[in-house]
């Protein structure tokens, strides 16, 4: 399983803070409910969107089809190995 | 309470106002703007109401003010708008105001009249001046050469009208014809000249001689103030008969005739006197204008506040006209809708009003019980207003129904951003909205009629969120103007050696060895941006995301309907509608979403089990279709058509249960109501008293059945027989429609969410095309010319980016988001058949009056 804990934990924690912790510290006032809802929905939508993107790439079924030029540049700049 | 989740709790109140205090109290309530009065005399026409006289006086004052305003605008005097909001004046002050306006209007009218007559005078004199000047030319010309042309017209008998223009020799030469040659001179509008000339020729059979000359400078028409071009003419004729005829024609053509002396000396003298008179007139005219200007400047300072005062008075009397008079004539009775939370401040306002009027008896505010549906009042602020407006554009919520607006605050910008996802375009939108938000006050003060700007400005907070979410989704899609950011380093690498690359033009890199086994942490891996099979990968991802988000939002909508049922105490609907609905949606569509996640997790390129290799990954769509059609999946090769053990059996079970939900939704509720009614009617035959209770219960059930609470004016127990059957039929039909709508809707709405994928694909492709077709052309040139090319191409690209990708694509994504909210989301729980609370508020009235005035 192509799954790395650090980014997953990091993003889940980030949106958990926004969606679960922050709603508790919203100052009291007439708009408290709206603020809480806004925070929770933001966290939920943003997290699920990130998660879908992450999971869709965890186990790629196809690889990118690249031109040889791009591949050479990739090897040169992104540190790929070129056997000879 | 008091939040946006449901509309405010309202109550109908009866208000007793002492006659003397009524005006002040209503004025205070108008400032407060929280009370909606009901018309208690709906069948009394506007002319028979109590305060019709006062309203008429206000109308008259308003007319005078409009006249003043028109005059002020005509003189281009700036009207000072201090932004102050004067209170509605006391009724007794109305007389003062009236007197002031009357005086001003009379003064102005007089000044205008004087100015007009002076101007007319001035015009006449100027025309005379021109006549004298131009005719002098004619006469001079004639003195030299006309005798040659018209010798036969000369008159030898030397009458006193004998004209100089023919000269001595001329008279002598044409001696035989005894002619009396007269002339008239005048001024006529230039465009009438040709017709005038023709008419003269025809009517006088060519026996007149017309000369004309154009006055170069335009003259001002005193009545309209327009500049008109005129011509001077002089007509020579012979005999009295012709003279009258000529005069008549002149009159018919609205030519102004002026007496003109015959002798040059007289004319010169006349010209002199005209000149001095013109000068005198000019000074008088200047003084009149000065006076008018002073009056108008003084009025311009106050006119805005006068307008506000008069409009307030008028609004108060209009409201008082809605009230009922008590039998003793000492008390006015009003009925009004009031938000329960604001009862206190309304009481306070009433007390203030009483104090102001000096009355001793406090007004009485009584809550009343009513069966009427109260108005829907959502208290919004500048942030939530735009979202509430988006919802209200579809339909105003029923009283205390779950309001979709607070959820739309986030879901709307989010779904928009899924379609509009691009960091660059999102940033442009965000910055534009940020500018409007930061410059809110000055921009608000600058009122414009530009509708498009007003729409943008009204939705600035919505735009701000849309921009922010677009930036986030842009990061996830890894799209900045169709380019990618490689922040964390791609998790793909090139594994081919030089030789291979030299021989092959392109190559697909295999996830088995070129992929680092963990995904790019945030968003799509930048390598895909270069890939020629990028769309294959992105389509698979975006389609799945669309369905996942869609099913989530629809589920959310159905769950919101639960809050409605619970709030309105419709327990029956929870069991007979909500549960089958949610089962249907979960067992079919949420299951499909689950399959997507399973597919993401379980199939991989490095799998040791060959049934889990990418080549064996089944299509979710085909799986789902087979599932619904009860078709057994066919294995191909070594692959297992199922993703997990027991999938086939579980799927059959899910579909069967989901299908069982359809008759549940369709029949359970009508059958339940029918049974209850039978029960209610059974005792009817035996004992009448028993009906009272059970009939009431049945009626309560009926009410919940017919969605909108039936008006309570209906008799408590229904007449038996044919009427019942009709009702039942209606319930069956209603339930049928509702079920069909829901079942078909679930399918079509799920498919409808694919627009998220389609639009985001279109947006990404369009921005890529724009880059490769425009921007790249600029970047490919070399040398100094390259610099120029980049400069020009960038301008072109930037214009197209903003106009097409941000504005047009933004609009289309906005509309699709709106549709997703109105149709796909709100149809699950929202009936939107209420009516808005429109309180009596001076603020609203003044705004309306001001905007209608501008038109």
UniProtKB/TrEMBL annotation, chain A:
This protein's record includes keyword Membrane: yes
Transmembrane intervals: 6-25, 37-57
Topological type in the membrane: Multi-pass membrane protein
Entry keywords, A to Z: Hydrogen ion transport, Ion transport, Membrane, Transmembrane, Transmembrane helix, Transport
GO MF assignments: proton-transporting ATPase activity, rotational mechanism
Source species, domain of life: Eukaryota
InterPro entries per record: ATPase_V0-cplx_e1/e2_su, ATPase_V0-cplx_e1/e2_su_met
Coiled-coil stretches noted in the UniProt entry, renumbered to this chain: none
Localisation: Endomembrane system; Membrane
This protein's GO CC annotations: endomembrane system; plasma membrane proton-transporting V-type ATPase complex; proton-transporting V-type ATPase, V0 domain
Family: Belongs to the V-ATPase e1/e2 subunit family.
Subunit structure, interactors included: V-ATPase is a heteromultimeric enzyme made up of two complexes: the ATP-hydrolytic V1 complex and the proton translocation V0 complex.
Entry protein name: V-type proton ATPase subunit
Organism: Thrips palmi (Melon thrips)
TrEMBL record, chain B:
Predominant cellular place of this UniProt entry's protein: membrane
Keyword terms, alphabetized: Coiled coil, Hydrogen ion transport, Ion transport, Membrane, Transmembrane, Transmembrane helix, Transport
Superkingdom of the source species: Eukaryota
Keyword Cytoplasm: no
GO molecular function: ATPase binding; proton-transporting ATPase activity, rotational mechanism
Entry similarity comment: Belongs to the V-ATPase 116 kDa subunit family.
The name this protein goes by in its record: V-type proton ATPase subunit a
Species this protein is from: Thrips palmi (Melon thrips)
Lineage, top ranks: Eukaryota, Metazoa, Ecdysozoa, Arthropoda, Hexapoda
